[in-house]
């Protein structure tokens, strides 16, 4: 365990799981428990449950589960130590130091310090006299010295190893610089070289103000135009947004979502402090969930080209899944927000925001622009696309407004359009049911199990192991009971994950009465979800008796002994055949 158990008890007592989760999820009472829509996957019907009796949560849809610490780990995308620190700050507690925790913190702090030094190096390089062309380039884009300093914008020069040499002079090892994605390694010589060269550099900050990564725009016409940090020990590009550290302080619960760094910087310089951007990737589900914490409304401000329209459609669907209202800003007369602000100014952009279309309006306009309704075949295609799009709209009021409009534009009766939409909804529902059945079948045979890779090999054994482990976590006193003591050992478990859980149960048997919190950081957040599933499954059954546990252990021991004796030789094969014959008789 990374921290004293007394401290964890006090922390969880002050950070009630219901209070913490309610900050992210709207919970409703369901008997003695609480339910809501899961914040870790998209769903319309609540499958996320908070168990008040043991201070755990579990999602019956995606399998996420754990205690309040696990929840913070998953929700804030942080490690165990950082989740403890987050909750301790909330509760006003001082975090005790631990050797392992200290080492984990020191490792992360070194990457933060390395990135901070790199950002300062790039900034100093930008304002250095010998790099006046780079500074002229960025000021020529309309950026002021104040905004350059605020965002820490810098320049990576044309040298092959100036940054690498600087960081090594500050005591950083080659492996750290490489793992921090600030340098690559030559295949021929094995020497490090600066990853970013001849680029305007945009540091990426986390919500605490730490520099966690970089994006670099080439000066001139080189390729690729933008180069971004890959994932590192302190950065996951799918779980961060550029400039959210500034935009999160916006007070009107809205964000402007752009595609590029320069779009964000230009908008924030013009006073739109709620502008953010994805990090060189398409919008991810993790990013949409982060957005939903800070905004009720998102103004999509993507490029006006065909690729931008495709990205807008995808973002509309994904943001809708997490309950965020979407309005689409059409940037006319410019290729992107950066160019628009320079051409027309702040007041004109404000009008764009106010006149932006809701996502349904935007979709119908796009569909209309593709067809000539005076041509019957094209009118049919127009109606088909509109009906398909409206079949995914859940609000009957919104749907009816646009049914009436489509009816008026096409001359087709509203009732006929409603019926067509309903047909598509039925078809979509059937497909969803079919997919759910297939997923259930895959789960039932252990296919694609990322937590327990041994599931598909012997599902019946895995179920017995998990049932036994679930009972032992609920009733840890059984471990030393006379009827079980001789049966239980690591040897009876065939799956590596089950063995790991068994070892932790043995190690923490005396403390397990207080719950699975005693496992500390021995398991990942996803593994904790499986562990909670084991206890939930056993809690739902009436019989968690010592006799049931003994029968499961006895069965597992027989299987383990049989597997041990069956060494693959001819003798063992024929011996097994004889055993099967006796069983049949």
Structure overview:
The protein is α+β, with helices and mostly antiparallel strands. It is 52% helix and 11% strand. The protein contains 24 helices and 16 strands. The chain has helices at residues 5-14, 17-22, 68-76, 80-91, 99-127, 132-140, 145-151, 162-169, 174-179, 244-247, 261-269, 285-294, 306-321, 337-354, 359-368, 376-390, 396-410, 414-444, 459-474, 482-485, 496-507, 525-540, 546-565, 570-584, and strands spanning 28-30, 33-36, 48-51, 56-59, 65-66, 154-156, 183-185, 192-194, 199-205, 211-218, 226-228, 254-258, 275-277, 297-300, 325-328, 357-358. It has a 5-stranded antiparallel sheet. The protein has a 5-stranded mixed sheet with strand order 13-12-14-15-16. Strands 6-9-10-11 form a 4-stranded antiparallel sheet. α11 packs across α14, α16 crosses α18 (414-444) and α19 crosses α22 (525-540). The radius of gyration is 29 Å and the shape is globular. It starts with a helix and ends with a helix. The model has no long low-confidence stretch (mean pLDDT 85).
């Amino acid at each position: 365990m990374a921290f004293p158990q007394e401290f964890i008890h006090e922390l969880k007592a002050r950070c009630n799981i219901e209070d913490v989760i309610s900050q992210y999820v709207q919970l409703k009472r369901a008997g003695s428990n609480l339910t809501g829509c899961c914040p870790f996957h998209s769903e319309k019907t609540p499958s996320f449950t908070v168990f008040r009796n043991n201070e755990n949560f579990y999602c019956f849809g995606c399998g996420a589960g754990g205690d309040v610490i696990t929840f913070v780990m998953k929700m804030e995308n942080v490690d165990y130590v950082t989740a403890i620190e987050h909750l301790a700050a909330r509760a006003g507690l001082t975090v005790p130091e631990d050797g392992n925790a200290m080492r984990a913190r020191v490792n992360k702090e070194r990457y933060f310090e390395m990135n901070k030094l790199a950002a300062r190096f790039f900034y100093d390089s930008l304002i250095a006299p010998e790099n006046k062309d780079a500074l002229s380039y960025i000021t020529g884009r309309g950026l002021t010295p104040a905004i350059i300093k605020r965002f820490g914008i810098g320049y990576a020069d044309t040298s092959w190893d100036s940054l690498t040499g600087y960081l090594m002079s500050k005591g950083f090892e080659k492996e750290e610089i490489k793992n921090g994605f600030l340098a690559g390694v030559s295949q021929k010589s094995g020497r490090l070289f600066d990853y970013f060269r001849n680029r305007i550099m945009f540091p990426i900050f986390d919500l605490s103000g730490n520099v966690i990564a970089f994006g670099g725009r080439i000066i001139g016409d080189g390729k690729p135009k933008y180069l971004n940090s890959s994932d590192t020990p302190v950065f996951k590009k799918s779980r961060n947004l550029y400039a959210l550290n500034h935009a999160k302080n916006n007070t009107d619960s809205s964000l402007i979502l752009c595609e590029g760094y320069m779009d964000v910087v230009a908008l924030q310089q013009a006073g739109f402090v709620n502008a953010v951007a994805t990090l060189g990737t398409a919008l991810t589900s993790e990013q949409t969930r982060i957005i939903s914490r800070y905004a009720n409304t998102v103004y999509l401000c993507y490029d006006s080209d065909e690729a931008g329209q495709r990205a807008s459609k995808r973002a509309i669907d994904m943001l809708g899944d997490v309950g965020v209202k979407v309005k689409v800003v059409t940037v006319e007369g410019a290729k992107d927000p950066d160019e628009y602000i320079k051409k027309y100014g702040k007041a004109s952009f404000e009008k764009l925001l106010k006149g932006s279309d809701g996502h349904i309006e935007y979709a119908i306009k796009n569909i209309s622009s593709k067809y000539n309704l005076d041509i019957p075949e094209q009118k049919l295609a127009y109606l088909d696309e509109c009906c398909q799009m409206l079949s995914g709209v859940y609000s009957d009021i919104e749907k009816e407004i646009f049914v009436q409009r489509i009816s008026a534009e096409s001359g087709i009766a509203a009732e006929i359009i409603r019926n067509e939409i309903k047909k598509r909804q039925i078809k979509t529902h059937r497909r969803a049911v079919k997919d759910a059945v297939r997923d259930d079948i895959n789960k039932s045979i252990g296919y694609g199990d990322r937590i327990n890779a041994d599931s598909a090999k012997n599902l019946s054994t895995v179920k017995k192991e998990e049932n036994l482990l679930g009972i032992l976590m609920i009733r840890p006193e059984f471990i030393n009971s006379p009827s079980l003591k001789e049966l239980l050992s690591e040897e009876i478990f065939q799956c590596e994950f089950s063995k790991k859980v068994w070892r932790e149960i043995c190690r923490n048997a005396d403390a397990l009465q207080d719950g699975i919190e005693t496992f500390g950081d021995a398991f990942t957040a996803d593994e904790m979800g499986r562990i909670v599933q084991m206890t939930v499954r056993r809690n739902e059954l009436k019989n968690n008796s010592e006799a049931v546990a003994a029968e499961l252990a006895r069965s597992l021991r027989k299987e383990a002994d049989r597997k041990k004796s069956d060494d693959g030789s001819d003798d063992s094969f024929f011996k097994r055949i004889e055993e099967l014959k006796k069983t049949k008789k």
